[in-house]
Design goal:
There is one protein chain. By secondary structure, the protein is of the alpha/beta class. A seven-stranded mixed beta sheet has the order 3-2-1-4-5-7-6, with helices on both faces. The mean pLDDT is 90.
Length: 258
């Protein structure tokens, strides 16, 4: 089996479906991870933004990937692929669509996991664009050759993967040291336990990571239920990306583009 994650930023797998990733690696699957950006703006300090934090985040992602398993050379069993777009500036257009489609077709995965941009709990523009691009690319593939598409960050989950080792989420996440701390890890661990406990009513009374399995049926992405509309409104206003100040200095000033 060949599993592909398509993520907007480093740490997205660790934050959403680390156990699923760990189990795929343990089963001997070929696991790939396309990272659309390098999180060049994911820090408050302006003197760290750009190339400096990019190098840090790429190193941290490498260390996080090793937590799931390493090969005989001490390198991660997960194949990390850096797409090269800029954090906060990931475009949703034909050029990016074709570039990403070419990479996905080359990998030829059996399963693709990406963010849900329709029933999303995180409406950061990079997440929305990554989810839309992935959805449309998989939809464009001939049905008989189309991989299974699972979407995380969804408040309309319908597919659950039992968690075999919940500690993997914190073990892997803690490698992103520039984004967390020992105290934050403890708080996050407690919050995750509460979240998964509350989810038991939907996941069959087991701890499980949730996804929305896409069937590519007509109107399946429409917000029909009132509670879905309310949730989307809440997340659209609370989690729609960083404030304008987050984007200064500009990519050009940071030397990310010329």
């Amino acid at each position: 089996m060949r599993l592909l994650f398509v993520n907007a930023h480093p740490d997205d797998v660790e934050f959403t479906c680390a156990s699923t990733c760990q189990q795929a690696v343990a089963l001997g699957w070929d696991v790939y991870e396309i990272l659309m950006t390098s999180d060049e703006y994911g820090i408050d300090k302006d003197d760290f933004k750009g190339k400096r934090i990019k190098m840090i985040r790429k190193r941290e992602m490498f260390e996080a990937a090793k937590v799931y398993g390493i090969n005989s050379l001490g390198r991660p069993k997960i194949n990390l692929i850096w797409f090269g777009e800029i954090d906060g500036y990931l475009k949703f257009n034909r050029v990016i669509f074709l570039r990403l489609r070419k990479k996905i077709l080359k990998i030829n995965p059996d399963i693709v996991i990406s963010p849900d941009s329709f029933f999303s709990m995180d409406l950061h523009p990079d997440h929305k664009h990554t989810g839309w691009l992935t959805y449309l690319i998989i939809k464009s593939i001939e049905p008989s050759k189309r991989p299974v598409l699972l979407l995380y960050h969804s408040f309309n989950s319908n597919f659950y993967v039992p968690i075999k080792d919940i500690s993997i989420q914190i073990k892997a996440w803690s490698k992103h040291e520039s984004q967390t701390s020992p105290l934050l890890n403890k708080i996050l661990k407690l919050m995750r336990k509460i979240f998964y406990f509350l989810r038991k009513r939907k996941s069959g009374h087991i701890l499980a990571e949730g996804f929305r399995k896409v069937n590519f049926n007509k109107n399946e992405n429409q917000l029909k239920k009132l509670r879905h509309k309310i949730l989307y409104y809440i997340f659209a206003n609370m989690l729609n990306g960083p404030s304008k100040e987050h984007y200064y200095p500009t990519p050009k000033e940071l030397g990310l583009i010329f």
